[in-house]
Backbone:
């Protein structure tokens, strides 16, 4: 009923860039969802990377401020994460998240691997 399809992960050198995409399929209006990107490294807790409200406001983890940009295209029901100046510590499995505001329901993508290594 609600599916999140992620793409854009891969292997990149330090200082490089990647752009993640998350296409949302839902019977509900995309603008009713708060969207976010989370990441989890092996043996670590899942952490919030960036969050985007339907109106476009955004917040970021301190570790990615100035390097990552979250955006959304409500017409295309798609969430993006532009990642610049990547560091080895950015290596993780990145998850797309959708929270349906009227009910507070959470949905997750399958995750896409980002590996930053020389």
Residues:
């Amino acid at each position: 009923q609600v599916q999140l399809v992620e793409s854009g992960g891969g292997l990149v050198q330090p200082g490089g860039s990647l752009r993640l995409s998350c296409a949302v399929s839902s019977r509900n209006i995309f603008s009713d969802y708060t969207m976010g990107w989370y990441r989890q490294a092996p043996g670590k807790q899942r952490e919030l990377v960036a969050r985007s409200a339907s109106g476009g406001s955004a917040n970021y983890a301190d570790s990615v401020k100035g390097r990552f940009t979250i955006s959304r295209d409500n017409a295309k029901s798609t969430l993006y994460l532009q990642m610049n100046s990547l560091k080895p510590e950015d290596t993780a499995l990145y998850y797309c998240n959708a929270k349906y505001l009227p009910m507070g329901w959470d949905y997750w993508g399958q995750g896409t691997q980002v590996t930053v290594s020389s």
